[in-house]
Specification:
Order of helices and strands: HHEEEEEEHHEHHHHEHHEEEEEH
Helix content: 25-40%
Number of helices: 11
Distance between the termini: 38 Å
Strand order of the largest sheet: 7-8-1-11-12-6-13
Structural class: alpha/beta
Oligomer: single chain
Length: 446
């Protein structure tokens, strides 16, 4: 919970501080027609394999059409026909876009460290020292538009991750302003769903505290309104209206369809990598169903994590830590098969989340029809630390992209992908990220 003092700290106690906050005050009201649009960023570290792109890129069909392609060995789990965590996975081909030929830009002369990769991955801009996002990340730009009316503007989760620096955070509110992620599934559950199990008296006391904070913030914003330029006052007015909407939501009962993903008395642990990941995926699906948030980032470990994946079939005796395996000679079959099986594991988790959303009816379709999944990594070929030809995978209809295709570009900047993504969510952006690397949106996605 943000206290009044914390809110005012974001303003910086000055008109300049207020100006820095104003871009965050844009929002999409709950009164918009149709189901809400949502974004989930699914991050996996270390790119694919040292033989990339061969094991990853789809196989073009003879017609040359974008919808004529075959699955690659890594992406084959998207064809379905198996169960993941007990959930039957359908053929997701008609819901997916795979791209090739999109390069990650915004790093200047630094063409390949993991820290720089995570810094620019969602921001398309880097701090002058080469580490840390140099601007707002695309998830936060979209959260500012669609997340104003939800209990959580956005949610940052990590599977056995860390937080606090450019190597371990991917969501940025602004230049160098990383948002911390939560690795503990139990703590994330309490934060998201604890209100469902509160005693009525506890809930009333919490509501009274929040109303007191809102009253103070409203008074401070009213005073601040007299100190900003007239052109910016409408944004403060919009924020005052958002505070009034928040006050109304404090009186709302939890949605009748809102169900926690597990019983609060259940013993859950994040000690096993795959199980922690499943718990986070279940939390994400439940939070979206309850409309607690509309924007989520999920990190599977960090960009230098040393997990050995000995629980993967065929790798019980593996002694290669993940980061070291990515830098082994690409001609060694042992490590390349490990990297390919790890990548296939991630594909299955991506499919598991997509299937949960596909199984949830929503108005004229399903939740997947109104949610955009974006799979990203901080490098393409980890052996070379390459930022060229990044392995982007998209699923769902949240941004209005035409799915069921394999799209091939030629050195398109990833900032152009994000400009298209922003436009798909209703933002009037021509470009995104560092202006030095800006490019028009990739219209081919629509």
């Amino acid at each position: 919970m943000m206290h009044r003092r914390g809110f005012l700290g974001r303003l910086g106690g000055s008109v300049a501080g207020a100006a820095g906050l104003l871009p965050l005050l844009e929002g999409q009201s709950r009164g918009a027609t149709g189901p809400p649009k949502r974004l989930v960023v699914f991050y996996t570290p270390h790119g694919m394999t040292g033989r990339y792109p061969d094991p990853f890129a789809p196989i073009p069909g003879p017609s040359g059409r974008s919808d004529d392609f075959g699955w690659s060995p890594i992406l084959a789990p998207l064809a379905g026909g198996y169960a993941e965590h007990g959930l039957s996975i359908d053929d997701l081909r008609d819901q997916v876009i795979v791209t090739q030929g999109i390069d990650m830009v915004g790093a200047g002369d630094d063409s390949g460290s993991h820290g720089t990769g995570t810094s620019i991955m969602l921001t398309a801009a880097v701090q002058p020292q080469g580490f840390g996002g140099g601007g707002i990340s695309i998830d936060q730009r979209i959260a500012g538009h669609v997340g104003a009316d939800t209990r959580f503007r956005s949610l940052q989760l990590a599977v056995q991750g860390r937080t606090g620096d450019a190597w371990h955070d991917i969501a940025y509110r602004g230049p160098g302003q990383a948002l911390p992620n939560e690795s503990d599934p139990a703590a994330a559950f309490d934060r998201l769903f604890g209100f469902l199990f509160e005693d009525a008296r506890v809930r009333a006391a919490r509501r009274a505290r929040k109303l007191s904070i809102l009253d103070g913030v409203r008074d401070d914003l009213a005073r601040l309104r007299t100190r900003v330029a007239s052109a910016d006052r409408f944004k403060l007015d919009a924020h005052l209206e958002a505070l009034r909407a928040l006050e109304r939501r404090l009186d709302e009962a939890p949605p009748s369809a809102c169900q926690a993903p597990w019983d609060p008395s259940a013993a859950v642990s994040g000690s096993h990598f795959a199980e922690a990941g499943r718990l986070h995926l279940d939390l994400i699906a439940a939070a979206l169903r309850c409309d607690l948030t509309r924007v989520v980032t999920l990190m599977w470990g960090t960009n230098t994590h040393q997990h050995r994946f000995q629980w993967l079939p065929g790798h019980e005796d593996n002694l290669w830590p993940m980061h070291e395996a990515t830098h082994d000679d690409p001609s060694r079959d042992e490590t390349q098969e490990l990297l390919m099986d790890v990548a296939r594991f991630y594909v299955r988790q991506f499919a598991y989340l997509a299937q949960q959303l596909r199984n949830t009816p929503e108005q004229d379709g399903t939740m997947l029809d109104h949610t955009q999944l974006l799979w990203v990594s901080e490098t393409s070929n980890p052996y070379h630390h390459s930022f060229v030809n990044m392995p982007f995978v998209l699923a769902g209809g949240g941004a209005g992209f035409r799915t069921g295709r394999f799209l091939r570009f030629r050195n398109a900047p990833h900032s152009a992908l994000y400009a298209a993504l922003a436009q798909g969510f209703g933002l009037e952006l021509e470009t995104f990220g560092d202006p030095a690397w800006a490019a028009p949106a990739l219209g081919e996605l629509f």
